[in-house]
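<purpose> Linking amino acid order to shape
<body> The protein record starts here
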Amino acid sequence: MVHDRLMALAEKLSAAGESPAPACPDPVNEAMIRNWTQAVGDTHDWGSMAPPAMIQVWSMQGLGAAKAGAVADDPLRLLNENGFTGVVATNCEQTYDRYLRLGESLRSTMRFGDIAGPKKTGLGEGYFVTWYQTWYDADDHRVAEMLFRVLKFRPRKKSGVSPPKSGGKYPLPPAIGLDTQFFWDGVREGELRIQRCAECGVLRHPPGPMCPVCHATKRDHVVAVGRGEIYSYVVHHHPPVPGRTPPFVVAVVDLEEGVRIVGNVIDCPPSEVRIGMPVELAFQKMDDELVLPQWRPAGLPGPEPVVEPAAEEGALPELAIPLTPTFIIAAALATRDFTPVHHDTELARAQGSKDIFLNILTTMGLVQRYVTEQVPGAVLEGMKVRLGAPAYAGDTLTLTGRVIDTPPAGGPPPAATVEVRGVVSLGDHVTATVRLSGGPR
């Protein structure tokens, strides 16, 4: 049984303790630093030192390099052979004893942590594999240490529905023509507009070019009050519909104005929908550009009013980073991460993703970039990063932060902790804690 084999292997590897890691291919050099900083948009002047978040980059083996054994290779291979073919990094914790200088050569060691699972996740059932890496300089002084954790998961079976081509976009936008433009203009303004004949005053829906009663072509509209009753409905189970999770209710609603309109019933289990049920209009945001008129049981509490929170003490300005495919691929290559899910769309989808997505080394670089931009003179001692929702191509990553535990200013930059949050359209992509020291490195 794969679980028993995994646990036995984990126990054996943990007992083995620290062992040499594959050799670091290159000394700390200006060309790799320049490529890395340009890829992640880091404009900080690092002088003769290397950005600390690059520490893992120096030991990445690169594309086509001879495969040297790493401490987690055997459990990862065993999981892969047993159908857990998907992989995504979930956690990384780094401690920086000092900044590296140009020309330094490093060596590193690894020790195995543990394997946790099986666990059900949003990507599928999988196992969390943890290991540690430590870097030393030429004098055998420790310069950095890292905890690294990945999820090896069994990709979910495809439903047969193609994912949307661009990140965060609703896959079935309405077709808008000359006869329906007024309707969708109204939806964007929070109105349900019903077409009216400008000659005889008859209301009609769906909209059309000519009045079915007097055949006039002049038309205007009225704004419906947004109340009605369910005239008929179906509960949709199959076939799959892009952007919708079955079962869902599609209803014909009898409006108080005397016309009928089709829409989904939301905020109500399908089993509780019935003919004649009073409903009211609800506008549902599908993506950053599209809002759809839907229907919900009448009398439900409305959404809480949006109140802008007061700025927290120590709050930092936000930084929005467009995640273009070029950005994601360039950053992955600059971090020497050639895992296909970060540059090959078809292979990413074969592993259960909807597109290529940001790698954790880039995410850490962006967290560092944000802190050094927002906290002048910041010197990093360590960083803890936890990944959540994938940051897919076509989305935008918005970073915000807050400085806490700051002693009185004066003299060198004060020691502090910065909490950083990075959000994409799917939710929190990253939460991070960055420790800052009180002086130069």
